[in-house]
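Pasting as-is:
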Amino acid sequence: MRIGWISRVLSWVAAALVGGVFGVAGTIGHSLMWGPVPVGLIVGAVACGSILVAIRALTHDRGATLAAGLGMIGMLVLISGEGPGGSIVVEDTLSGRIWIYLVAGLVLLAVAWPRFSRLPVRTDASPVSAAPPAPLITEVPTSPREPSLGDRTGHES
């Protein structure tokens, strides 16, 4: 079934909006720590990576995945600067830097992942001067047993 360009563009817009929502949620929650465990980074990375994989798997379209990724990165850049009241969502800490590069890496990985269903199938080509294969054995030859031979050990039975 051929997908029209209108539905494709609408799917890109929807993917960008969904990516933006996940980008905002991950960016706001990335600094959550539970003791020494960066829970916000882990949950945000799993959520953003999962939505990218889901969009790629459901739409079979790199464009939709790229739109979702650009929505994530766009919202991350938009809200990571200093706000009008002086508040900063993404601080210049190790956690903030990891979050920025982690989102960019997830988007790059999801968009660049190859489509395995379209890879060419390799077949082994047989040489031109190859000998024909030997015929298959379809029956076992039997010969009547001579009573003088005995059993297989050479002794008379």
